[in-house]
Amino acid sequence: MENNLLKYSKYNSIISLGDKLSVLYNSKEDKSLIFRKEKEHLFSLLPEKLKNLDLGIFENLKNIGAIVSEDRDELQEVIQKSKEIDNADDSYRLIINPTMNCNFKCWYCYESHIENSKLSNPTIQKICNLIDNILLSNKNLKTFDLSFFGGEPLMYYSSTSVPLIDYYRTKYLTHKDIDFTISFTSNGYLLNDKILGHLLKGNESKHFQITLDGGREEHNKVRVAKRKGGSYDKILSAVKTLIENDIEVILRVNYTSETLASTYEILNDISGFPEESRKNLKISYHRVWQDNGNNLKTEQTSKQIISDFKKANFAVSDNELLDNLNNPCYADKKNEAVINYNGDVFKCTARDFSETNKYGEILEDGSINWNEKIETWENIKIQSKACQNCRILPICGGGCHQINLEAKGMDICQMGFDNEKKDEIILNRISHIFDFVNEQQ
């Protein structure tokens, strides 16, 4: 028998839009209702009484999920959705660190660079076996991304990446229903004709993420090259070469409060890139996490620069639109593993690849021997009371596994959001999506 008792969703937020209007946003359904301020008192009434006094608003609130059945356990629905997304078996991302060595020593890098470290032939064979295991055990697989990280993955390319890519490509013929991709997180400096030629031999989709650290002068202070003239122009040349060859590139711009203004130069320097190739380029701005300069001024300046990139018809990755439950970090996914050059296995690439942080090791047959920490990893999300009681949990997702692991036992917002920040996130989302009902009764 249907339960006719009703309640307000725990994921409702009411935010003022000025003197005359307010908005009620429901984060679980990602929908909004804009209404006149004089009607705000109606939302303090029980749903049944609201129905009798103003049927129009009542129906609109039901339509956006702001009023639900009394027996609905919305939290468990969100947790279940999060688990389903994280445990989806239609994709796999295998990340390889061919080396922990790097040709640059950026001041903000969290990794311990290890000279002369690189994949050995036995470890390469183990990874090839792992590729077979992934294809065999994931019957619903639709996408498979072989990703190279590090260190700088273009170092030792011929002896480490080539045999893995060549083996990976042999699988296309027998798994034609799977979308195979290859991606690199690289500084781009070492790209040459030989590497490019090898990459272009395959028909798979190819992606690069390449970083700049400000305009020419500021970048060259951070990424010091042995050759005269610095690394800035050579890296931009590599980006241009890649996109002209239909290889997609995310140009990640790392900045601090001091270097941000110089990044305007990047816009000038890429304005000459061919229009037909720009479809393969996306700009992504990221503040260096160690920087704590003038936050307000820096935020305003970055928004203006991003706006100028958009006006110049460059695609820009919008990192402000929070949607982490539906689009979690790749490391949150069960079907993801990071294989270090020495065979150690990790989940997160945003932490040092140390013995303390590893989650297992790859075995001779290509299976992964996960250690006891993997169980904690799989069950750590949405465990704090702060997350469970949060009104924006359905879009935030409670933070990634790594953040939750490091904040274990702390009953605080894993993302550090206060109520003012949550309202800002909601308003930003509404302004992007415009999925609302305008109540003008």
Describe the structure in your own words.
The protein has 441 residues and is α/β, with parallel strands linked by helices. The chain has 15 helices and 17 strands. It has helices at residues 47-53, 55-63, 74-86, 121-137, 157-170, 193-199, 216-222, 232-244, 264-270, 295-311, 373-378, 385-388, 393-396, 401-406, 419-433; strands spanning 6-8, 12-16, 21-26, 31-36, 67-69, 91-96, 143-148, 179-186, 205-212, 248-255, 281-287, 315-316, 336-339, 344-346, 360-362, 368-370, 436-438. An eleven-stranded mixed sheet has the order 12-11-10-9-8-7-6-13-14-15-16. A four-stranded mixed sheet has the order 2-3-4-17, with helices on one face. Strands 1-5 form a two-stranded antiparallel ribbon. The longest helix has 17 residues, at 121-137. It is globular. The two termini are 34 Å apart.
For the largest beta-sheet, the strand count, sense and barrel status come to:
11 strands, mixed
**What is the multimeric organization of the chains shown?**
single chain
Measured between the Cα atoms of the first and last residue, the distance is: 34 Å
Number-wise, the strands total 17
Strand content: 15-25%
Number of helices: 15
Instruction: Indicate the radius of gyration in whole angstroms.
Output: 25 Å
Alpha-beta content class: alpha/beta
Task: Quote the average pLDDT.
Answer: 91
Spatial order of the strands in the main sheet?
12-11-10-9-8-7-6-13-14-15-16
Uncertain runs with pLDDT below 50, 5 residues or more? Answer: 435-441
How much helix is in the residues? 25-40%
Shape: globular
